[in-house]
């Protein structure tokens, strides 16, 4: 930084940097260091939304530029979430190189379980009668599911799968229920409305059917969801 022209300092001398200037210099050094060591194209949690901002899909934060995102990845919150996800995946027995293909295709999972095929499924388009939000209703059949096992779901970005060329316009909805193969549904990369009554799942123990409703946020909610002071949408 240039300290000699700072107000109150002698010519040729170094003035005392303010707290804000010190923080700006630190952020810039972190950004340059991260650019040398991190390839954003290979970061599975890096996402550029439709308004030009950058999102961290691991921490659910929004950043105005790549420098801010890179500084975030070096921070305590991001590193803690990375450690928590790694510990959870290790506990669940998920392989780091587990592959997830496109629409309802099998996922390779490194486990000593004999797979018996893919579950049956049905997908229905739905619309919220009050907010007119579009969504999907999934119905999966697990007639031979392991006793005491409930199907699990997860949303993942295009960079977390290895079967297809990553496309930021899409995301994957993953469903797992042993001893069936884990399957994935390719969806538009739109934000999911996770409010109560919008996004839900239910497993019928008698019929062995698994129901999941996914409702997408409106364009207005997606545009203003990260703006402080504004409501997230109509309830």
UniProtKB/TrEMBL annotation:
Statement: the UniProt record of this protein carries the keyword Kinase: no
Main location: nucleus
InterPro entries, per database record: Matrin/U1-C_Znf_C2H2 (IPR000690), Matrin/U1-like-C_Znf_C2H2 (IPR003604), SF3A2 (IPR052092), SF3A2_dom (IPR031781), Znf_C2H2_type (IPR013087)
Family: Belongs to the SF3A2 family.
Region (Disordered), start-end ranges: 1-25
Molecular functions per Gene Ontology: nucleic acid binding; zinc ion binding
SMART domains: CactinC_cactus (SM01050), ZnF_U1 (SM00451)
GO cellular component, one term: U2-type prespliceosome
Domain Matrin-type as annotated: residue spans: 54-84
Species: Lojkania enalia
Protein name: Matrin-type domain-containing protein
PANTHER family: SPLICING FACTOR 3A SUBUNIT 2
Entry keyword Zinc: yes
Pfam families (alphabetical): SF3A2 (PF16835), zf-met (PF12874)
GO biological process, one term: spliceosomal complex assembly
Keywords: Metal-binding, mRNA processing, mRNA splicing, Nucleus, Spliceosome, Zinc, Zinc-finger
């Amino acid at each position: 930084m240039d300290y000699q022209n700072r107000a109150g300092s002698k010519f040729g001398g170094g003035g005392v940097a303010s707290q804000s200037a010190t923080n700006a210099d630190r952020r810039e050094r972190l950004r340059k260091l991260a650019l040398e060591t991190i390839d954003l194209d290979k970061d599975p949690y890096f996402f550029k939304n439709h308004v030009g901002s950058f999102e961290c899909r691991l921490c659910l934060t929004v950043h105005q530029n790549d420098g801010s995102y890179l500084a975030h990845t070096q921070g305590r919150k991001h590193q803690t979430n990375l450690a928590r996800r790694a510990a959870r995946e290790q506990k669940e027995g998920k392989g780091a190189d587990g592959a997830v293909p496109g629409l309802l295709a099998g996922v390779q999972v490194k486990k000593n379980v004999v797979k018996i095929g893919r579950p049956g499924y049905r997908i229905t388009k739905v619309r919220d009668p009050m907010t007119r939000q579009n969504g999907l209703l999934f119905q999966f059949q697990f007639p031979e599911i392991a006793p005491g096992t409930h199907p699990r779901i997860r949303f993942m970005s295009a960079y977390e799968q290895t079967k297809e060329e990553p496309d930021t316009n899409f995301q994957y909805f993953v469903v797992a229920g042993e001893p069936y193969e884990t399957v994935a549904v390719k969806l538009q990369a739109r934000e999911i409305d996770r409010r109560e009554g919008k996004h839900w799942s239910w497993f019928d123990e008698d019929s062995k059917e698994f129901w999941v409703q996914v409702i997408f946020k409106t364009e207005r909610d997606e545009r203003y969801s990260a703006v402080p002071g504004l409501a997230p949408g109509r309830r």
